[in-house]
Amino acid sequence: MILKISKSILRPAVILAGLFIFSAQAQTVKQLTSKNSAKKNEDSVAAAQLLSGQELHIHSLGIGIGQTLLMSDFKDNGEDKITAELFYNYKASYSFDFYANLHFSKHELEEKGTYSKISGLVLGAKGKLFHYDAFQPFVGGGLGFFRPQLKTVNYKSKGKTVFGYQAVAGADFDLNRKISVGGMFIYNNPFDVEQESTADVEGYYFKMLLTAFYKF
Question: Which CATH number fits domain 59-215: 2.60.40.10, 3.40.190.10, 2.60.120.10, 2.40.160.20?
Fold first, then answer.
């Protein structure tokens, strides 16, 4: 009699315990699935915001490689060549980015034994003209410090740091949330470098670059 009562009590208890465990497991699976779905949705929204230009406070480091075209005194004593330079970019608003540009290159004319050295650190802003999907053309400019130096057939100029300005135009194309590529045309014009006993150093130069940025 006692055995029959025990079995009659035990069987429903086992069934209830099984239902409780199944329910708990189902709830856990549901929570994990919801979290994964929410994360995927967040990633999708963030990616869409980035590609549409709606995601702010994005830092990026980049490199530009392309042709440097010398003008004026720089052209007389150096040869155009392919150079590389560094960029930092910060997306401060929907329409404007802050950027910094660091460059240095030495251009020689071997037949004359002369060279032109150009270097600069420029801080500026880029204004986005419009956003078309992941494509973003821009124009901009900035001010900075330049240190041009010449070695001519008659003299070698003294290295002095001067102020100057830069104008830029180009376009960026976001491949994904981390990588962006593009092209840029840059005009650099350092102010004249005064010399004590020789002619002042005068000149400007253009750059046509392919760029790649890593965002974080």
Answer: 2.40.160.20
